[in-house]
Amino acid sequence: MNTEELLKHRMLKFRSIGIGGFKEGSKVEPERKRNMKPSEVNTPKFADLESELEDLKKTILESKGPPDPITDQKLKKLEQDLDQEMTKAFISMGLIDRIESLKLELARSPNPDQGLKEKADKIVQEFKRNLSRPGAYLGLKKKLQTRDIVGKLLEMRKNSEKLKNELNQKLSEDIKAEMENLKIAKEKLFKGDPLDENLVREVENAKEKLEEVLKSADLRVLGRAKRGKSNVPDELREEIMKVNKEIKHEIEKVIEEKGLGWKIDEMKVEAAKETNSEKVKKLEAEIKEVIADALSGSPLKQRLENLRLQPVEGNVSVDNGRW
């Protein structure tokens, strides 16, 4: 048992046997209780809460179809823990009696009047004010955050299942047959077998029909650009990367020496308001002009020109110190 565990063990022992005139579980005068260290028996452990949240996230994201009993059980336990923390917070804030009184009044009058609504609003505002204090009710805050995250995950899964069902309904038997052609073509490509003209035509038709289905479901297809294999020598590639790095360093140096930082910040602020405004274009042109003038006499410019003159196959370029 290490020092911390030993001290905690002795503290709990003395609390239980009543050393110092106090015994755990017995009534204590309010003025004395204020000066005592609160019991740590039911203090929430944030490591346990984090582990519980990660486990619940994994269960929700990996599950398919309707929620399983295990997930429902975990969600129910989360709600129960949250209710307990809320009750403790209401008692600690001195709001529990006012809440119980409000419940009785609401039970007597199904249609609450303005007075009851004002009472409820006052209780809510006081609760939020107490909860917002730094370092206060950390266990409750953590559980509220956990519930919000779980709610968003459940909403994501619900939307995913809804979208999947809509797509399955829209996919007719003809399109499913077209998708089989896509599958066959994919398998042939993996094996290295050539595709005949009919299969190529069927694949193109299948792609078009599938795009139409996705568009009808308010989705769009994101195309991927084909990347050709680069034949750039390793030495040239390393030299290009080195020059790019040096150019970037020189640009940062120019920005610092010429005091362009505030102008770049101003451009970012204006761009956030309107990307293509005249002021943004003007600031951008001024910054580029200062940097270009500063780099005009740099030996890096000649190195860059030499690299451009070398015959290069493929899609590799020097970025000119893009910033």
TrEMBL record:
Any one GO biological process: fatty acid biosynthetic process
UniProt GO cellular component terms: acetyl-CoA carboxylase complex
Chain segments annotated as transmembrane: none
InterPro entries attached to this UniProt entry: Acetyl_CoA_COase_a_su
GO molecular function: acetyl-CoA carboxylase activity; carboxyl- or carbamoyltransferase activity
Location of region: Disordered: 24-44
UniProt feature coiled coil, ranges: 150-293
Keyword Transferase found: yes
Top-level taxon: Eukaryota
The keyword Coiled coil is annotated on this UniProt entry: yes
Pathway: Lipid metabolism; malonyl-CoA biosynthesis; malonyl-CoA from acetyl-CoA: step 1/1
Biased composition (Basic and acidic residues): 24-33
Keywords: Coiled coil, Transferase
PANTHER family documented for this protein: ACETYL-COENZYME A CARBOXYLASE CARBOXYL TRANSFERASE SUBUNIT ALPHA (PTHR42853), ACETYL-COENZYME A CARBOXYLASE CARBOXYL TRANSFERASE SUBUNIT ALPHA, CHLOROPLASTIC (PTHR42853:SF3)
Protein name (record): Acetyl-coenzyme a carboxylase carboxyl transferase subunit alpha chloroplastic
Species of the source: Phtheirospermum japonicum
